[in-house]
Predict the 3D structure of the following.
Amino acid sequence: MRLLLAEDDALLGAGLRAALSKSGFAITWVRDGKAALDVLAVSEFAGMVLDLGLPGMSGQDVLRKIRAGGKVLPILILTARDTTQDKVLCFENGADDFLVKTTDMDELIARLRAMIRRTIRMGGSVQFGDLVLDPDTHTVTQSGIAIKISNREFDILRALVEGAGRVLTRNQLEQALYGGSSGVESNAVEVHIHNLRHKLGHNVLKTIRGVGYTIARKEP
């Protein structure tokens, strides 16, 4: 998934880019508000991480301009400001989530994924090859035929479809299933992958040994 990062601090921006890239996001990093708007005018992203204290144009102004333009983009505010007034203003201007910069990186990544999933659910069905996923009803069709899968299997499949073209690690799939909660069974992902292969065909989900899993288009 492509993610736009708007952060002017060089050290923090580099750290965020590295951590988010390691978690499977493709990061475009800009350091001021105007650059963020210029990039958004020509490119599409799954989500955005926006700092409020940007030079030239504040994060609040960037947020207002994005929403005034009618763009549906999940936006998470990541800022050093933590007052209630800051949070309320961000949400009034159209932010989807708000975190302070002391937040643990794992929580940031989990909140980003949850924010993007909510937007995808509101946007209707998701299609990859002959697979069509409907997040509203948790249903899947393959070549027009309904496939009965569990809610957990649906979450695994959706994460793989959203990340099509990339290999997702077991930890990333566990985040999609449980949002980082403790007490996850060690073989839960493997069990769901096994069940999905049985239902969708063994060539649809690929195991990359020692790395993770990816999805492939069904062979004709």
Observations:
- The first strand starts at residue 2 and ends at 6.
